[in-house]
Specification:
alpha/beta, eight-stranded mixed beta sheet, 12 strands, 19% strand, binds iron/sulfur cluster
């Protein structure tokens, strides 16, 4: 391990010199997030135009070396809890473990071993006696949640006091094609989201930004609000919305066309979402 202090902009997945496990100081949560990257091959089934993964390619997670992942997770949690990593690498004020986050350089649920990974996390958490307040979070584009084994994994996450952050950047097929570079229908997105909600407490995570200087249109906002309110009307209980703009530069060819929205612009949309009765957390 190196001795370079971690900052809230340091998301280098190699910063702990491990294959699957990496630390991130979360600016949102004010603590260390223990990241698990199931896509060390930088492959995702989507290609969001704001994606920050270097050398992103289309594809799925490779076979996961579960024994290595378990060794890395146990060793790293042990170091955080009993070693001097916090003092050497983490700034004052952020020296606490905030969560274990399945979030990496691609879509984590594309790993064939996904459910076994969650069972492994549960076992390691128990062994190192990690406090229940340390959540286990799955950050997902949601596109594979129709698969039964993935749903099984979500049920296991729920048992860990965990949550799912389900990506919804636009609520029209055309908008998703534009922003996430994937073809889908809103029926499929809705079915996947309903599956997530049925298995585990679920937040929407929404990246809202300007393209060619233009913020999302009123129609984009209306599509989103209509989609969410229809879900709520039908009794599907979302936890809320995590609304953010571009935290770090895109590494996609569209990067020069993207720009962050102001906090005021984000707040204006957050207010409209809030009128649906949902909590909204905004990160500019
Ligand atoms: S879903 Fe995540 S990893 Fe995949 S392309 Fe989008 S931002 Fe990148």
């Amino acid at each position: 391990m190196n001795d370079k202090p971690l900052s809230t902009t340091d998301h280098d997945r190699d910063s702990a010199a491990l294959q699957y496990v990496y630390p991130v100081v979360s600016r949102r949560a004010g603590g260390v997030s223990v990241g698990i990257n199931l896509n060390p091959n930088n492959a995702c089934n989507w290609r969001c135009i704001y994606c920050q993964v270097p050398g992103l390619s289309r594809g799925t997670a490779p076979a996961i070396d579960l024994a290595l992942l378990e060794k890395e997770l146990r060793g790293f949690l042990d170091e955080l809890l009993h070693g001097d990593f916090m003092h050497r690498r983490v700034p004052d004020g952020a020296r606490r473990i905030n969560d274990i986050a399945l979030s990496g350089n691609g879509e984590p649920t594309s790993a064939a071993e996904f459910t076994r990974v969650i069972v492994l996390i549960a076992r390691v958490r128990r062994e190192v006696a990690l406090a229940e307040s340390v959540k286990t979070v799955l950050i997902t584009n949601g596109s594979l949640l129709y698969r039964e084994p993935v749903q099984q994994g979500l049920r296991e996450i729920a048992k860990l006091n965990g949550e799912v952050w389900f990506k919804l950047d636009r609520a029209s097929a055309a908008g998703i094609q534009l922003v996430n570079d994937t073809r889908t229908s809103m029926k499929k997105v809705r079915d996947n989201l309903i599956a997530a909600i049925a298995c585990c407490p679920t937040w929407l995570q929404t990246c809202w930004f300007a393209l060619d200087g233009q913020p999302p249109s009123r129609q984009d906002e209306d599509d989103y609000l209509e989609f969410v309110s229809a879900l709520l009307r039908d009794g599907h209980k979302l936890q809320g919305v995590l609304l953010y703009s571009l935290a770090r530069p895109s590494l996609q060819p569209e990067a020069p066309r993207l720009s962050a929205l102001s906090e005021k612009q984000l707040q204006a949309f957050a207010e409209r979402i809030g009128k649906l009765g949902l909590p909204v957390k905004v990160s500019p």
